[in-house]
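Standup notes
- HV: blocked on the assembly model, inputs below
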Amino acid sequence: MVIKNIDTKTVVAKFAVNGYNVHPDAVRLIISSSFDVDVLVRETCAKCNGAFIVTPEEVSEVIKELQSRMRGEEINPVNIRRTAERREEIRVLKDVTGRSACRGTVEDFVAYFNSRFEKLSRILRNRVKAIPVASISKIKAETVEIIGFVNSVRELNENRAMIEVEDRTGRVRVYAEGKIKEQAMELFGDEVIGITGRIAGRSIIADRIVFPDIPLNGNGKVRRDFSIVFISDIHFGSNTFLHESWKKFVSWINCESGNRKLDEIAESVKYLFVAGDVVDGIGVYPNQEKELEIDDINAQYEFAAEQFDRIRKDLKIILSPGNHDAVRQAEPQPALPKEFSSLFSSNVIHVGNPSYIDVEGVKVLMYHGRSLDDIISRVSRLSYEKPHDAMVELLKRRHLAPLYGERSPIAPEKDDYLVVDDVPDIVHSGHVHTYGTGFYRGVFLVNSSTWQSQTEFQKKVNLNPMPGNVAIYQPGGNVYRLKFYS
Ligand code: D5M
Ligand code: FE
Ligand code: ZN
């Protein structure tokens, strides 16, 4: 319990510094809560992300979350602290692990899509002064702004498309022409967007499609004096796992490459992120057993743990699962179960997929990247050669799996963990086995290739992996690319 002697003015000032106005009832809630005021302000600002005024409801939600995080820690002690009260080097800001509550019923899906709509429309409300769709035919104005789910998109002719947009009150046809038609044709359906346009009878002629998108300069610059290494898709246990490349990588990260410049880079590394497909798994695709070197899941994780154990222990390793790992397939995926996570040494921190992790004030959003297959196959200008361009589409839509019902199965949690509600400094994904880095609106994007050479399946579908490519990023500074496979 924190003993507080804090007044309204101080709380208002703390929000003002972060660019927020705050409702008096929200201030009262903060003052009467047992949590540290700075923690509450920080977490609330992160939650509101761009809202104009902080409401008491938002503060209550944050308090509830902090309480459940504390309970989670008591029930399930892990080697990371989930409470936001202490300033640790690593904080897990959002992760479904230990909080999954869905059974996949119709009601769960309704609640899930409500959560998605609520979160995304809240972001859009700062940019679009929306009216309910049902009231369009009743108002006298010539122009209108709405926010809704994309129901469908249809190309009418070369210059014209029709988007059906739906909110809680009804549906409306929105016509898109010229440049806006081109934007409309890249909509997947199921995203939440804003529309501004002219009223034409019962329809709208769009003059702008507004995406929830992240702010122009992300979170502003965060500069740190350490570096972070990003890898994924190691596929330990596969007969195409690249032992030699992996060995070279481990020597390098242990500052034992023998090359002075490379060892200096390695010395600056404090964190290693691993974005899933740690092992190849068992029965993930038909006839997989023919392509396994280790055909037992326990033995695969034992081998994985042994390999990570060779990495210097002052490095913190943050590891999440992918579709080949031994957790549920539907996203969000919880962290590896105890029987496997306990095999790893204590510098390995197990988190879910996706998860938000704060390392010394740098926010990393780590997501395995299953939806990238869907996005790349849907948008013709995107390709596997430049996976970071596909990642941009996730940030624009502020959603990690914007194509519902395709190759990315979703578990309908009451809270949509796949919404990018918090603006990250870094987005790390994998899955497509190709390498790419870039910046989008100040956010560093990295897709971290693989440690597996081309599989029989990938040969058949003409998928050319780029194994052994490693990205090293010093927040606010340099990006390096090292190749451990030639
Ligand atoms: O996926 C590695 C890459 O290979 C990723 O881009 C998907 C693709 N892949 C793998 N298996 C399939 C199937 N069965 N259908 C379509 N595409 C596939 P990974 O998660 O490592 O298997
Ligand atoms: Fe993979
Ligand atoms: Zn994968």
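- HV (later): unblocked. Residues 277, 322-324, 368, 431 surround zinc ion (ligand 3) (CB under 6 Å). Residues 133-210 form a domain with the OB fold (Dihydrolipoamide Acetyltransferase, E2P) fold (CATH 2.40.50.140).
- Next: hand off to the docking folks.
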